[in-house]
Design brief:
Layout (H helix, E strand, L loop, with lengths): L7 E3 L1 H10 L3 H10 L1 E5 L2 E6 L2 E8 L2 E9 L2
Parallel strand pairs: 1-5
Antiparallel strand pairs: 2-3, 3-4, 4-5
């Protein structure tokens, strides 16, 4: 079975939000893989459980713009 490898590049803001909200890279990858995706002006917003990720596919990696915890 072929597994989709997700390569992440996090901007500074996203890294700060990960630390503040105690979100790990594996959680971000899961949100991108199985979460609901909403098209935005420049990328997507993926939501799964209590986590929302704003991201954009750039080449062979996912540029993570921000990491949010939903209420």
């Amino acid at each position: 079975m072929l597994t989709l490898e997700i390569k992440l590049k996090l901007i500074k803001h996203a890294k700060e939000q990960m630390i503040n909200r105690r979100i790990e890279k594996e959680q971000i990858k899961n949100v991108i893989k199985i979460g609901a995706k909403i098209k935005q002006t420049d990328g997507f917003l993926s939501c799964y459980g209590y986590i929302a990720i704003a991201w954009k596919k750039v080449g062979n990696y996912y540029k993570i713009k921000t990491v949010m915890v939903r209420d």
